[in-house]
Amino acid sequence: MSTTTAADNRRKAPRGERVADWADGRLGIYSLAKTNMRKIFPDHWSFMLGEVALYSFIIIILTGVYLTLFFVPSMSEVEYHGSYVPMHGIRMSEAYASTLDISFDVRGGLLIRQIHHWAALVFLAAMFVHMMRVFFTGAFRKPREVNWLFGFLLFVLGMFTGFTGYSLPDDLLSGTGVRFMEGAILSVPVVGTYLSMFLFGGEFPGHDVIPRFFSIHVLLLPGIMLGLLVAHLILVFYHKHTQFPGAGKTNKNVVGMPLLPVYMAKAGGFFFLVFGVIAALSALFTINPIWALGPYRADQVSTGAQPDWYMGFSEGLIRAMPGWEVVLPGGYTLALGVFVPLMVFPLVLAAIAVYPFIESWVTGDKREHHILDRPRNHPVRTGIGAAWISWYLVMLIGGGNDLFAIHFHLSINAVTWFVRIAFFVVPVLVFIATKRICLGLQRRDRDKVLHGRESGIIKRLPHGEFVEVHEPLSQEQLHTLTQHEQRKPLEAGPEVDENGVKRKVPRVQKLRAKLSRGFYGENTQIPKATPEEFKEISSGHGHH
Amino acid sequence: MKKLSARRRHPLAALVVLLFALAATGGLYAAFAPADKAEAEPVAQSLAIEEGKKLYAVGCASCHGTGGQGTTDGPSLVGVGSAAVDFQVGTGRMPLQQPGAQAPDKPNVYTQAEIDQLAAYIASLGPGPVTPTEEQYSPEGADIANGGELFRTNCAQCHNFTGQGGALTEGKYAPDLEDVDPKHIYEAMQTGPQNMPSFPDQVLPEQEKQDIIAYLDTVNSEDSETPGGFALGGFGPVTEGLFAWTFGLGAMIVVAIWVAARTAKAKKS
């Protein structure tokens, strides 16, 4: 758009147009806006889970900036003489003292602190369910594998940002968490001691840990996360949003509404709703009452010390692991009771991160997918996802084993043994059960397609028989229930080549074929109703 | 004197004389007799011991033995002192309802007088910690901050930062200390009931025990302040995480479904 010529000044352009013109001449935003403002997004509540995460992240940044104005990231010792009487005269670090000040002497400080912390818990939880939505609907398939990894990295970085933030007030609870981390680092063979000395700038706790965690918490990790977040959103725009199957929805289109004005209005409103929910939560419910916990001292510890929920599974790993210890000749100790959980920790996370690549390798599916799967149509994937969640939950129970023991009047030893066994058994059981449920739902779909919906109306026939009237489904519903593709497993190729000579099949290929049979072979899907079957049954008069 | 003699036959004269006589003997007794406590107490004490012994035979002897010597079902009570009896019976832990990992506190069925009698009997078996007086355990004027420091150093390992309680091995536990009578807290520290270590005065002087009681009174009692709103039980991140998932994320999903349902689609209306 060029500016109007001087000669053409009979009509003055409206103000909005002039502003837009001015901006376009300098920023070139017209073409950008033209392609994106009318971009179509499909509508479904589960597509908004990622938005919850995004908005809580924004809330965390805003409140975090306010908190940095008053927080003193220092380990120097001071004597407290602020408003909170039960701490008068106690020696504590400046970090803890300034957090007490934020809670009691800074205007709105406690509310902002609680918003910051509640929003962090909701942020991680929202990322978790967003990730699960993407997983169960198969939205991670090509071309979105990289974006899946970006999202996964955001989740892991969010965990560590949360952990460093939880540690900053230097209270007895968080200090115990940092001590836990130090123990885990020390358990690394050979280099553990060096790593710990390097991180803490000497012996634990030292004077460096809080300033260092502060930089990591407010600068390093959020910076990386912000970059990843932008990349994540750009890719969402670039790939276009996936949509659930339905009439008129194909792999080549997106059915929905434009970004402007519909989604701008919706998203803007949704942001304030998310903010409102978190603010209400923070105004009503205490989170991390550090004033009651006391300052961290290495000679003090409390029972019931747990990390925030997103780190809870690592706590569970440690609590469930038997305290094995091996002393090597020469007096070197291998603290397996801590080191094994430290190694399992990244494995738990990696298991879900690499899944898209494993699935595409096993199934040989390299095509683009923009239509989402209904979870029931992929029983093995759904089973794996449910098994992973159950695994994660078992570890969370392990992390809170003392609270479960005391509040349900159980023995803590019994809870721990339950977790140890369940760690191996429960995911298998959940996988089998979920797969069966999916197959059952597929059978039901097939039934619905062929015989229609149960109407609940009972009809009595002239000869006295009672039958239930089934209503046939609409074309749209039939499409939704039958549009999915039922894939065949990959074969390793014939045993013999064209000359009848025994072919050498690489072991990897054999494994792949075996896994593929596990995915799409027998007992993994109920054949969907074919058009012939449908025609036969709906044209005939034998069906009620 | 005339007046006095004139009324000496008054019908109420005898009453007045009687009152004077009573006041005189009472006053004299008050002036001389209580001067030496030891002379009167053994009588009351031995009475209490007698009564206590009877109560003991009914409620305690089946496990602790007829003479408090202990059996396979219950430990010897020789030398546990009156403070231990006052704590165990006063909080309802004893008599035990059923054997288990630990004796739980439950409604107490004895009156304080009966508990004192039981305590007197047990104390007579051998010297031990004595039931504290009110000025010993009263938290008034104690140093709360110091109490917190002491609590975190000595008690929080089992009872949690603010005395919410915690799990021990094999179903045993350190109980929640919310609204526990200051006297019972004092006695527990003095005698070390069940799995708890004891903190005699040489280890934790009377003043410091009062500080701890004052701290608990501030952070974990019915009228302790929670400036951040509802405390969610005060159990820390486990309940906070559970709450964030159920109410926080739950509310978000409800809101998301609501927003998604209000759509501009022409088909719906």
From TrEMBL, chain A:
Q: Which cofactor does it need?
A: heme
On whether Magnesium is a keyword of this UniProt record, the answer is no
Q: Where is the Cytochrome b/b6 N-terminal region profile domain?
A: 19-245
Catalyses which reaction(s)? a quinol + 2 Fe(III)-[cytochrome c](out) = a quinone + 2 Fe(II)-[cytochrome c](out) + 2 H(+)(out)
Annotated region described as Disordered, given as residue ranges: 483-503, 522-544
InterPro entries associated with the record: Cyt_b/b6_N, Cytb/b6-like_sf, Di-haem_cyt_TM
What are the transmembrane regions? 52-72, 117-136, 148-168, 180-201, 213-238, 259-287, 332-358, 417-438
Keyword list, A-Z: Membrane, Transmembrane, Transmembrane helix
Coiled-coil intervals in this record? none
Which Enzyme Commission number(s) are on file for it? 7.1.1.8
For the keyword Transmembrane, the answer is yes
Please give the name of this protein: Cytochrome bc1 complex cytochrome b subunit
Organism of derivation = Streptomyces lycii
TrEMBL record, chain B:
Q: Which InterPro entries match?
A: bc1_cytC-su, Cyt_c-like_dom, Cyt_c-like_dom_sf, Cytochrome_c_Oxidase_Subunit
Q: Does the keyword Metal-binding apply?
A: yes
Q: What is its EC number?
A: 7.1.1.8
For this entry, the protein name equals: Cytochrome bc1 complex cytochrome c subunit
User: Where, per UniProt, does this protein localize?
Assistant: Cell membrane
Q: Which Pfam families match?
A: Cytochrom_C, Cytochrome_CBB3
Q: What is the lineage of its organism?
A: Bacteria, Bacillati, Actinomycetota, Actinomycetes, Kitasatosporales
Q: Which domain of life is it from?
A: Bacteria
Which parts pass through the membrane? 242-261
Q: What is the recorded membrane topology of this protein?
A: Multi-pass membrane protein
Q: Cytochrome c domain spans which residues?
A: 47-126, 142-220
**Keywords annotated in UniProt:** Cell membrane, Electron transport, Heme, Iron, Membrane, Metal-binding, Repeat, Respiratory chain, Signal, Translocase, Transmembrane, Transmembrane helix, Transport
